[in-house]
Amino acid sequence: MSNAPAGTPVTGAVRRREQLSDEVAARLRAEIMTGTLRPDSFIRLDETAARLGVSITPVREALRTLRGEGMVELEPHRGHRVVPLTRSDIEDIFWLQSTIAQELAASAARRIRDDQIDELARLNEDLAAAVALRDPDRVARAEFAFHRAFNRAGGRLKLSWFLLHAARYLPPQLFASDEAWGPVAVASHTELIEALRRRDADAVVELTRGQFTDGLARLTAWLEQVGLWD
Predict the structure, then answer these.
(1) What average pLDDT does range 115-132 have in this prediction?
(2) Are residues 154 and 114 in the same domain?
(3) What's the pLDDT score for residue 38?
(4) Are residues 67 and 145 in the same domain?
(5) Which of 53, 82, 111 is the last residue of a domain?
(6) How many domains does the chain have?
(7) In this structure, how many other beta carbons lie within 10 angstroms of the beta carbon of residue 77?
(8) pLDDT band at residue 5 under the 50/70/90 scheme
(9) Domain boundary among 35, 51, 82
(10) Within a 10 A sphere around the Cβ of 20, how many other Cβ atoms?
(11) Least CB-packed of 37, 45, 227, 228 within 10 Å?
């Protein structure tokens, strides 16, 4: 008989189920944000589970999460309907993220250590390598790692947590798959690192703001291209 505490396997199973639910929610959220799932279309449990290669349970839990975020609505006897995204919705999402990110950037410019700046330089080299390889998954991971390190450098962990959750609405694969975006991101990070070495807080904040302005323009252009607001 196992000496493991009773319930340990169940706890692990629950944790895995929650992780899977989060992964499904992230996938559906990105599909809504990029117009892959069209406004007013219905997300069917069985069809979505089969498409994503999961059971119905994590899809149901993911849709519950998205209902709480106002991204889908449950219509009786019909299922979950995708709530339309307006231009103002997109602008508000980027405004919120940019506002938090600029505050974190100002703190980082004041508090970051030289070794943390060196780490950012190394992470930007990882991003540049991923961009050169044209590997979207690697690009997305490298970009996330860079900004996680930068946002934490200011020591304001709770504010970093809020930004992390707000950033869920950014579709990372859309940017990572854009071959024109990668070199721009690497160059912007290089300028940011140089500004941090100079302890130029104004430049650090302005470069951070510019990254979100660029992201908003690219996502808006994509949604116009796919006819989200036609």
Answers:
(1) 98
(2) yes
(3) 96
(4) no
(5) 82
(6) 2
(7) 4
(8) very low
(9) 82
(10) 18
(11) 227
Q: What is the CATH number of the domain that holds 112?
A: 1.20.120.530
Residues 74 and 97 in one domain: no
Query: Residue 150's closest CA among 198, 176, 111, 203?
Result: 111
* Amino acid occupying residue 9: P
| 117: in domain | yes
DSSP bridge partners of 75: 79
Distance, in Å, from the CA atom of 47 to the CA atom of 58, rounded to the nearest integer, reads: 13
Q: Would you state the structure tokens that stand for residue 48, as one six-digit string? A: 């979505």
* Category of 220 on φ-ψ map: left (φ > 0), alpha (ψ -120 to 50) or beta: alpha
- End-to-end, the C-alpha distance of the chain in Å comes to 64
User: Per residue, what are the HEC states of the chain?
Assistant: CCCCCCCHHHHHHHHHHHHHHHHHHHHHHHHHHCCCCCCCCEECHHHHHHHHCCCHHHHHHHHHHHHHCCCEEEECCCEEEECCCCHHHHHHHHHHHHHHHHHHHHHHHHHCCHHHHHHHHHHHHHHHHHHHHCCHHHHHHHHHHHHHHHHHCCCCHHHHHHHHHHHHHCCHHHHHCCCCHHHHHHHHHHHHHHHHHHCCHHHHHHHHHHHHHHHHHHHHHHHHHCCCCC
Cα–Cα distance measured from residue 73 to residue 82, given in angstroms and rounded to the nearest whole number: 7
**pLDDT tens digit string along 171-197?**
999 999 999 999 999 999 999 999 999
Locate 213 and state its tokens.
């302005």
Which residue reads 């809504």 in tokens?
32
Specify the pTM: 0.88
Length of the chain measured in residues: 230
